[in-house]
Known about the structure:
There is one protein chain. By secondary structure, the chain is mainly alpha-helical. The chain has helices at 4-44, 61-66, 70-101, 108-120, 123-133, 140-147, 159-187, 191-199, 204-215, 217-232, 236-241, 253-263, 267-297, and strands spanning 47-48, 56-57. It has 2 domains: 4-44; 69-297, MetI-like (MetI-like fold, Orthogonal Bundle). The protein has 13 helices and 2 strands; from the N terminus they run αββαααααααααααα. A hairpin with a 7-residue loop joins strand 1 (47-48) and strand 2.
Amino acid sequence: MVTLRTVRSTGARTERMAGLILAGPALLVFTVFMFVPLMLTFWYSLHRYRGFGTMQWLGAQNFVEIFHDNTFWRALINTVLFTAVSVPLGVVLGLGGALLLNRAMPGRTLFRALFYVPVVISGVASGVIFLRLFDPLIGLINQLLGSVGLPTVDWQGNGKAALVSIIVVTTWQGVGFGMVVYLAGLQGIPRELYEVAALDGATGWQRFRLIIWPLLGPTTFFLVVYSIIVSFQVFDVVYVMTRGGPGTSTTFLVQYAYDQGFNQRRQGYAAAIGVIIYLIVLLFTIAQWRLSRRRDAA
Length: 298
C-alpha cells in the first residue's frame, strides 16, 4: 500500500538524485582542476623537487627557509602595497564609471562597451602595449609629460616608477569589470527609493550615501574580495613589462614563485610560496566575510 510518507520519501530521493546529476559536472571540474592541484601543491611544498627525478622529504624546511628569505619578504611587501593601492583605486573608478553610465545619455551603450574592452585584452597584450607607451625614450607617456613641461620618467629603470606603471596597467585592465558589476548592482535598486528621496528633497550626495552605497554593500564586498584575489595573483603584466625589476622593486609573490619553480628548478620551494599565497588570501576572505556578516546583522 502506497502511503503519503512513501510518496514524499520517493520524491525527496528523486530531488536529491537530480541535484547530484546537475551538480556532478561542476564537482568533477572542481575536483580535477582545483582540489587535486591544491593537494599536490601542499604535497610538493613538503619536498625538495626539481620537476623531474625523485622527491626528497623535507617536512617544513621549505617554509622555514621562506621565513628567512629576504626576497620573499620583499615580494610580499610589494604585493601588499600593490593590493593596497590598486584595489581601492579600481573599486572607486569602477563605481564612478557605473554611476556615470547608469544615467540616460547619448552613446551610453558604446561607452559601456569601450570601458569593458580592456577586460577582454590579455595581460600579455596589455603589457606589450603599455611597455611601448612607457618607453623612456620614444614612449607616448614621456612625450606627453615633456609637452606640458614636466620631467620625463625612466619607467623601467626607477623602482617606484616601475611599480606605478604596473598599477596603472592593471587598473586599466580591471576598471571595466568593476563597472559592469556595479552597474548590475545599481540596476537592482528599486526606482521607488529614488522617487521617495526626491520627494523628501534629498541631494545627490544624500541619495548616494543613504541609498546607493548601503545597498551596494554586497556588490562592493564581492568586488573587493575578487580584486584582492586577482591582485595577489598578478603575473603576466609584471613578467612582460619589468620581469620583477629593477632589482626586486616589482617582484610580486607569484612572479617570485615562478622564478623559483621554473628558472631555479626549485618546484618544492615554489609550491611552498604558493601555499602561503593561498593561506593569505583565504584568511583575508574569511575576515572580510565575517566583517560583512557583522555589518549586515547590525
